[in-house]
Amino acid sequence: MKVQCSKCGEEYHLRPDENPSDFQCKCGGELIKTDDPPYNPESPEDEGETDPEASNNTYDDLEKKPPEASNDDREKKKSMSIFDDWKKQYMIVIAVVFLVFIIIAVDSAFFFGDLVVTNVTAPSTALRGQEIIIPNTIKNNGILPTGDCNVTFQFTQEQNSKNIIFLGKLRISDLASGASVTQDTKFTVPQNITPGRYYIRVVVDSNKEIYEANENNNEIYSSTQVNII
Question: Domain 115-228 falls in which CATH fold?
Answer without folding.
Answer: Immunoglobulin-like (2.60.40)
